[in-house]
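Hi X.,

You mentioned you wanted examples for the new student's onboarding notes, showing what a folding record looks like when two proteins sit in one file. Here is a clean example. The first protein comes first, with its sequence line followed by its structure tokens.
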Amino acid sequence: MFGTSGNVDISDDQARPILGSLGSVSARSGVADFNPPFHYFVTFGRYWRRNGASGSWQASREMLDSILEPLQARLDEIEAGSITSTLAQAISPRRSTGWPGIEEEHVALRRHFESARTQQDDSKVGNDCVEVIEAVSRVAYYHNRHGKAGQPEPPSGNTKDRLDRVVEEALVGSTNAEMRKLVRAAIAMAQAVKHRRSTTTRTEAGASADTVILLANFIRRIHGDQLCVHGMRAADVLKVFGRRSYVYPVRWDRCIADS
């Protein structure tokens, strides 16, 4: 697009948005460190001369290759790994929990897993896994439905106790024992990936991410086809869920009448 003779195929005004678009697309693809030392032809010309490429076509080509080839290699790597790095999808035909905040957490988890490149990045995926579980705990647990008489409400970060009670309330008999073990194992795995820092592997991060995505859908499934509003005041339901029905309808007859 820019030759040593000054001949160009596009203008300076066109070059700026083209390079800007390349940077934006790269960032969305998980390559956040692409920042070329020029932004349009004038600054490229200065960079080209300052680095001794004046008068040499080969030198200018090598200079551009050194900047653009690593980006191309990273994008090729992302494309090649996209199949093996894809996280689990729920089996439900709805493809969504319908719970406020959960889908946003899932989107962030998938994005961070796709862009992870180091063990520290994989450990941060563990942070996302823990945040997904805490979001499920906040939405699924209602103290007036799941709490034990005479005991205070567990904090939202106490996901094991809160989700234990959700499972116990939804499932009766020996079934809930196995399901509680599943919940506890998912929580323990997410915490381990989060805290291992420099020793976390991509396989562990992906397995934990798969697990919490499916855990969220499992918890949603055992709630049945209505939002968890049993024993809640109608005004509180509106405060939490708004006036949208999301994916599942609200059973208003299960709410306590406002006084």
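Then the second protein repeats the pattern, sequence line and then tokens:
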Amino acid sequence: MRAKLPKIVAILALLVMPLVADGSVSARAATSISAGLNSTAMTGPGRVAHVSCYGDYCSGKDPMSTGCNNGAITTAVLNLSWGTVNLRWSPVCKTNWARIYVYPTRTLAPGFVVAEQSTGYTQTGSIYAIASFSAQSETSWSPMIYSPSYCVRAGVNLGTGYSWNTEWTGCD
């Protein structure tokens, strides 16, 4: 324990150094702390994954390749006979995206998976004909849409003329 004490003191000193005389955090330290929090996502107990974008810089990007899917939650679900439509939210990246699961042994015509803001702004991903004849489901998703303060819903529009949407969420 004695050998660890100097390391602990050094770490505490680094944490306390950004404080100014009145006990507030300096602007530089606050920016540094904020940047660190904004670029990571918790993926499990004690695990942190880095993301490659934040906020509006994520709009139009893939949630999987940016890492924004880590720690994301499903905020709306629409169950259908062929699968589900989900609206996903990344609290780290502040983005939403639409995701569909096509159940095993089901098929889905070509179309689009869409994340739509109440303002009319959308991000659309293509769905190619999906035939899930295996025991595994197939997944497709839209690009992300930055939407921390607007209502958002997920939808799927098929070339056959059918479309479905989840409920609007985030309409506080």
